[in-house]
Write a structure and sequence with these properties.
- By secondary structure, the protein is α/β, with parallel strands linked by helices.
- It has 3 helices and 5 strands; from the N terminus they run E-E-H-E-H-E-H-E.
- The strands form 2 sheets. It has a 3-stranded parallel sheet with strand order 3-4-5, covered by helices on one side. Strands 1-2 form a two-stranded antiparallel sheet.
- Helix 2 links the parallel strand 3 (about 50-55) and strand 4 (about 75-80).
- The longest helix is centred in the last third of the chain and has 13 residues, at about 80-95.
- The protein is globular, with a radius of gyration of 13 Å.
- About 25% of the residues are buried.
């Protein structure tokens, strides 16, 4: 897959089946669908209207999944500027802009 970015999908909520672009960056490993499905099944009763922190956001799959399932706001934090740019691109393409903040810090 060298030179070709990957794709993952949002598995629930109003953005269900939306695809996220995954840039080819060293160490970037998006949370697998099955893990996100299990996590959000556990969180379903308390997620609507909450504020979420997606630390080490990478693709933003966890935070976008939370927004898709009813979270009120997400703070994305990513230290790699290229991953943060890709995340902003995914958010723009999905037209997700309400109550979202993407921050990056060069460590």
């Amino acid at each position: 897959m060298k030179g070709t970015p990957g794709r993952i999908r949002i598995i629930g909520g109003h953005l269900r089946n939306s695809r996220l672009e995954v840039p080819e960056l060293p160490g970037l490993r998006p949370t697998p669908e099955r893990v996100r499905e299990t996590l959000f099944n556990w969180l379903a009763p308390v997620l609507p209207g909450t504020r979420v922190l997606d630390l080490c956001a990478g693709t933003g799959a966890l935070g976008i999944e939370a927004l898709s399932r009813g979270a009120a706001a997400v703070q994305f934090v990513e230290r790699d500027v290229r991953a943060a740019q890709a995340l902003r691109g995914n958010l723009a393409r999905l037209k997700v802009d309400a109550a979202v903040n993407v921050a990056w810090e060069d460590v």
